[in-house]
Design goal:
alpha+beta; Jelly Rolls; four-stranded antiparallel beta sheet; binds fe (ii) ion; binds 2-oxoglutaric acid; about 280 residues
Length: about 280
């Protein structure tokens, strides 16, 4: 096996809700993807100098050469890593869902601390919401940086519980602005950067993901997370989901505004690796 993860790394994913496959994207592919991502950034920043993403990638065929993205989607090392952590049924590199996360060009910015799905936004009954939250066949998300990227913060273990702690709710809402922008009306970039950092650091137990170009971070988007951005740290990070066929089908209906039902699947485990049954 060319790309081998340790058992400690794998159990870390199931405990903490995030994992990093270090240097999994080869140099030549990082180079080709950077060239396309730089075009994406130029294009997005023509309309909005502080645009922070272009999505989905395949909508921009023509502007972008999709060949390196397709090569990334088929990367054998990535396949091997996903097989080890999740299952051979999980896949990533979905060009019609994938975005490129970009740095703003003039103003620092941070997103509100959030879980990508809550009971209210899931449109699910509570039992199914709990099932989908805890199901490893459901939402797994990817940030794959083409330049070093320390923008994403995550609360390890928050993916395993539905309950929000009071300190988490306080930290997420700790903003002068009803749109949860902790910088309010501040337009000085240096001051604004500090306000964003203080807000981001205010989340109890949060860790900052420190990713290098060619790493692949996978995380449970149902855990508390946020992104904190400055114009002087160039960002071009592939942002994608890890789907199973059933989760992709669920998500595609849900994103269109539907209320598809969710049935929890048993955790997938190779038969040879199953633990002995003990009465
Ligand atoms: O910028 C990031 O890394 C996080 C983005 C995010 O949380 C989101 O798009 O929901
Ligand atoms: Fe998010």
């Amino acid at each position: 096996m060319a790309y081998k993860l340790s058992e400690e790394q794998i159990t870390g994913y199931y405990r903490d809700g995030y994992i990093v496959f270090r240097q999994v994207v080869p140099v030549s592919l990082v180079r080709d993807l950077r060239r396309e991502a730089d075009k994406a950034a130029d294009f997005a920043h023509k309309t909005d100098v502080n645009a922070q993403r272009l999505q989905p990638v395949d909508k921009h065929e023509g502007l972008l050469d999709l060949k390196p993205f397709r090569e990334y989607a088929q990367l054998p090392e990535l396949r091997e890593a996903l097989d080890q952590v999740l299952s051979p049924r999980h896949y990533t590199g979905n060009l019609n869902a994938m975005g490129i996360l970009l740095s703003p060009t003039t103003m620092p910015w941070c997103t509100a601390w959030h879980r990508d799905m809550t009971l209210a936004t899931s449109r699910l009954p509570v039992e199914e919401f709990v099932d989908i939250m805890l199901d490893w066949n459901s939402a797994n998300q990817v940030n794959c940086p083409l330049y070093d990227d320390d923008c994403t913060w995550f609360v390890p273990g928050s993916n395993l519980r539905m309950r929000d702690m009071p300190g988490e709710v306080f930290a997420a809402n700790n903003s002068p602005d009803k749109n949860w922008q902790p910088f309010g009306k501040v337009t000085d970039p240096v001051e604004r950067e500090r306000l964003c950092l203080n807000y981001t650091m205010g989340m109890p137990g949060a860790v900052q993901l420190r990713l290098n170009a060619g790493d692949f971070a996978m995380y449970r988007p149902i855990g508390w997370h946020t992104g904190n951005y400055t114009p002087y740290k160039k960002r071009a990070t592939l942002h994608d989901a890890v789907f199973t066929p059933e989760y992709e089908a669920w998500w595609r209906q849900w994103i269109k505004g539907g209320s598809p039902r969710w049935t929890r699947k048993a955790d997938l485990q190779p038969a040879a690796a199953a633990a002995p049954a003990v009465a």
